[in-house]
Amino acid sequence: MPPVFSTIRPTTINGKDHTMTLEQSIDLAELQADMAFDAYLAAFDEDAHPETLDSLETEALIARSRYDDLRSQGLGH
After folding, report:
1. What's the pLDDT at 6?
2. Structural domain contains residue 45
3. What's the number of domains the chain is made of?
4. Which pLDDT tens digits describe the chain residue by residue (77 residues)?
5. What per-residue string of b and e applies to 19-33 under the rule 16 or more CB within 10 Å gives b?
6. Among the four residues 9, 14, 37, 51, which has the most C-beta atoms within 10 Å?
């Protein structure tokens, strides 16, 4: 299973046609964290190579940290 980090992007989308609210960014970050953790668990169940597991675990931790950071910003408003 390839690392999912390439699919995880910063969670705030700003552009001419669309700007995400903080709540939408938090929801997206939560979804990305869940997906990264699910990918890690699936690889673990498949007895993936230790380097793959380490990479997926790191990605899950990064995604979770991003979610926690955005959530704390939301609680501060």
Report:
1. 47
2. yes
3. 1
4. 444 554 455 545 556 667 888 899 999 999 999 999 999 999 999 999 999 999 999 999 999 999 999 999 887 65
5. eeeeeebbebbbebb
6. 37
Look at residue 76 in the predicted model and tell me its pLDDT.
65
Let me know if residue 13 belongs to a domain: no
Pick from 77, 73, 75, 41: nearest CA to 59: 41
Q: How far is CA 19 from CA 11, 12, 13, 15, 70, in A?
A: 11, 8, 6, 6, 16
Residues 3 and 52: beta-carbon distance below 8 Å: yes
Residues 46 and 70 sit within 8 Å (Cβ to Cβ) = no
Give the domain range for residue 50.
21-76
Please state the pTM of the whole predicted model: 0.71
Q: Is residue 39 part of a domain?
A: yes
The continuous run of DSSP H or E covering 40 comes out as helix 22-45
